[in-house]
């Protein structure tokens, strides 16, 4: 039995299962799960993502353009 093919089929079957990286600490966040947990924040302007810990540390302001960071809701 092969394993590579199974993994590929799994990934394709999950629409909305999106992983992004925090642009500060590169922590991986699941946007789908974030709807409940609020772990992912996104800049309203440049669309960078931040984990909740870094968003808090930045006072919910984007370090790149000073725009507001909002909890990500898909
Ligand atoms: Zn982070
Ligand atoms: Zn920004």
How is this structure best summarized?
The chain has 74 residues and is α+β, with helices and mostly antiparallel strands. Helices cover 31% and strands 22% of the residues.
What does this 3D model show about the protein?
This protein has helices at 4-13, 31-37, 52-57; strands at 19-21, 28-30, 40-43, 49-51, 69-71. With 74 residues, it is α+β, with helices and mostly antiparallel strands. It has a domain at 38-74. A hairpin with a 6-residue loop joins strand 1 and strand 2 (28-30).
Q: Would you report the number of β strands?
A: 5
The fraction of residues assigned to DSSP E strands is: 15-25%
Shape: globular
- Mean pLDDT across every amino acid position: 82
Main beta sheet: strand number and arrangement?
A: 3 strands, antiparallel
Q: Span from first to last CA? A: 36 Å
Q: Evaluate the radius of gyration.
A: 15 Å
Name the hetero compounds present.
zinc ion
Describe the protein's topology:
Layout lengths: L3 H10 L5 E3 L6 E3 H7 L2 E4 L5 E3 H6 L11 E3 L3
Antiparallel strand pairs: 1-2, 3-4, 3-5
The protein binds zinc ion (2 copies).
List keywords for this structure.
74 residues, alpha+beta, two-stranded antiparallel ribbon, globular, disordered N terminus, binds zinc ion
